[in-house]
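The passage that follows is intended for readers who have already worked through the single-chain material. We present the inputs for a multi-component assembly, then the predicted structure in tokenized form, and finally a short commentary. You are encouraged to pause after the input and sketch how you expect the pieces to fit together before reading on.
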Amino acid sequence: MSYPYRGSEALQEPIDKALRRVVDPELALNIVDLGLVYGVTVSEDEVGVRLTMTSEACPVTDLILHELGTELERVMPPEAKILLDLVWSPPWQPEFMSEDAKASMGW
Amino acid sequence: MDGTVMRSPGLRQTASVARVAPALVVAPCLVMGIVGGLIRAGTLPSLPQDFVTTHAFLMMCGFLGTAIAVERAVAVKSATAIAAVAAFAAAGLLTIIGLRAHAAWVAVVAAALFFGVNVRIFVRQPVAHTALLVAAAIACVFGNLVYASGLHSQTAIAWWFCFLVLTVAAERLEITRVTRRPRGAVVALYAIAGMLVAGCVVKPFSEPQGNLLFGLALLALAAWLARFDIARRTVRAEGLSRYVAVCLLFGYAWLSVAGVAWMASAFRYATRDIALHALGLGFIFSMILGHAPIVLPAVARIELRFSPILYVPVALLHGSLALRLAGGAFDAINLRMGAAGNAIAIAVFVATVITLVTRSAAPASVGGASRTQILRGRPRNRPARTTR
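Having made your guess, compare it with the prediction:
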């Protein structure tokens, strides 16, 4: 796991898979491998995801957030809320990418 | 990645209307810009109103200026950004109804507002690619000022191309951050951008030297993109990612052709049509065809399912451009047919996108993240601004 996770162990795998289904269409890399996910916190009735984008000028931010919300709704219990916290600090760095993602980009 | 769906947040009716409005404005600019181009190529007969000399303005300011301003407005969500969109759109529409002089000065205001938007992006994220976005906006201001003052129309065209090319360069520079880019790559791109700007500055005083610098910069940029861009890698992916990469690689090839043609025009070769259209259609439109399936869902809040059928207009565009640019120099019929093919390719692309949107907008595929709350980088000790 490349981001801090706190909460239900039973939900850890389904949540991780949901995050990895959200893919940047141009890079062909998911948001976890890209290093955009800064942390996941799961409580009884809520899952919170702290994440960033590679650039503030990125026009597809809303789409990625929506895609993520939809994927998490599929794996969370029906009463659970999903909180997506889009942050800009710390700014995203290429070093945050997973080893697999770096390899696919020729590192 | 066949079957990739770019979903929209909410798809609410009012928001959709507000987002579809720019499309209704850019469409007439695109159509009348293309009509002007077809009249110039001899494919269509002349109209009572002169659309030939407004062809470049409608394509690069009315259509692309508005489209790029919309892209920024979606990202930064500020009043200035929306005002820039409105001003670019107004400039395009005023041109179409014949108020060319008024349109030109409105376009200056549009570019100034757009400059402000990009400065704001740079202040929030002061990095290499956002600085290039500011440089692109400055080029747009210069292009519109030269056009409005009626000084030298060819120089205005060079500045507009500089605006578009630097915008693309900035976006590609941002995306190459995922690669292990050598430090010198950014410096090299800045040097190329400087050479492009120098070409525009020199052009009104010495057209051959200006064109030589401009062409050299385009050729160098093509080499930079071929060396550092991710398209060489993502072309090995599948579905939408591969489609985008194919469009990019074709675009880079045409960019190098454009560079050679701009340089050749400095030595009095008759390569003007090749210089302008290898760049405008081969490079810039290839970028549009490649990125529209990604950017349109974000801008217009629509859903668009990727389909390999999108390769059809791409093949039409590049095939007809090759016919026009290779054959047009020898034969007016090739030029007319090639230009008609270019217009058909764009029409087929628009029709294909509309078909794909209609298909994927079926109620079953519209996912609403109704339980999802989004917080956007709120400052500490301040209540969160939430969107649903």
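Commentary: The first helix of chain B runs from residue 13 to 41. The radius of gyration of chain B is 21 Å. How closely did your sketch match?
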